[in-house]
Design brief:
Elements lengths: L30 H5 L21 H15 L3 H10 L8 E2 L13 E4 L4 E4 L9 H4 L1 E2 L2 H9 L9 H8 L16 E2 L4 E4 L5 E9 L2 E8 L4 E7 L7 H8 L6
């Protein structure tokens, strides 16, 4: 792959948006920000917030509006200033159809009906910038992943918050039998008992998977310009080639 292989990036969820009370400043949103939530305005809650776990990209769309309200800045401008530039993620940008973006690959999907690959349809990703609307490269995603290995870009307190599996009020852990869920990250252990973080997902014509083993400072990013089937197993095998045996 070359250039900006489009990928949804890790598409986190926000299971804790409901319940409790947030500071007033954190819930103020602009009219333009609220307009971005129109796609889910009429949807019903699946359950009382905080009582069950469900992966939700729209949860991060909502967080994007909160970021705009709290900072007074457009989400993309805030992300560029506080995340992309500090981490050196120069090849990561919003997935806009109109601009000519150097190195942008073409995207495909496989149709079992005729056993052929076809061009993936263009999609307006502006409604989902926070949850999966970016072009990136494997190198940039690795930079993002490595930022989670030790304090630096994040404080120790922030890392503990992001990377601690959440529990429901019942005491039941969020996630599945094989992994817990922090803020956006699925958290588990590899075959030798080392902690691993990972998240992946697909979009029209692409898939991304990011795998991090903080103990060894190892991050693996896998990208495809079609909806591939790779995931934790493939990324884990690559990660096993590096770090402590």
């Amino acid at each position: 792959m070359k250039g900006n292989d489009r990928a949804p990036g890790p598409r986190p969820f926000a299971p804790n948006l409901g319940g409790g009370s947030a500071p007033p400043r954190a819930v103020v949103a602009s009219v333009s920000g609220l307009a971005k939530l129109a796609i889910l305005a009429d949807d019903q809650l699946l359950f009382e917030p905080g009582t069950k776990y469900e992966c939700s990209s729209y949860g991060y769309n909502l967080i994007g509006v909160v970021v705009e309200g709290a900072s007074g800045k457009d989400f993309l401008a805030y992300l560029d200033e506080h995340v992309l530039r500090p981490l050196g993620m120069a090849r990561t940008t919003a997935d806009r159809n109109a601009p000519v973006i150097e190195g942008r690959t073409r995207f495909y999907f496989y149709d079992r009906k005729d056993d052929r690959f076809h061009n993936a349809p263009y999609v307006d990703s502006s409604y989902k910038w926070p949850s999966g609307g970016f072009l990136s490269t494997a190198e940039d995603l690795v930079r993002f992943g490595l930022a989670h290995c030790k304090p630096g870009f994040f404080t120790r307190e922030a890392l503990d918050l992001l990377l601690t599996p959440q529990a429901l009020p019942s005491g039941e852990p969020s996630g599945t039998a094989s992994f817990g869920v922090g803020f956006g990250w699925r958290i588990g252990k590899d075959a030798r008992g080392a902690r691993i973080l990972h998240h992946g997902d697909t979009t029209e014509g692409g898939r991304a998977f990011l795998f991090v083993r903080p103990e060894d400072g190892v991050a693996v990013a896998l990208l495809s310009n079609n909806v591939g089937g790779f995931g934790e197993g493939e990324a884990g095998k690559i990660a096993a080639m590096f770090g402590r045996r």
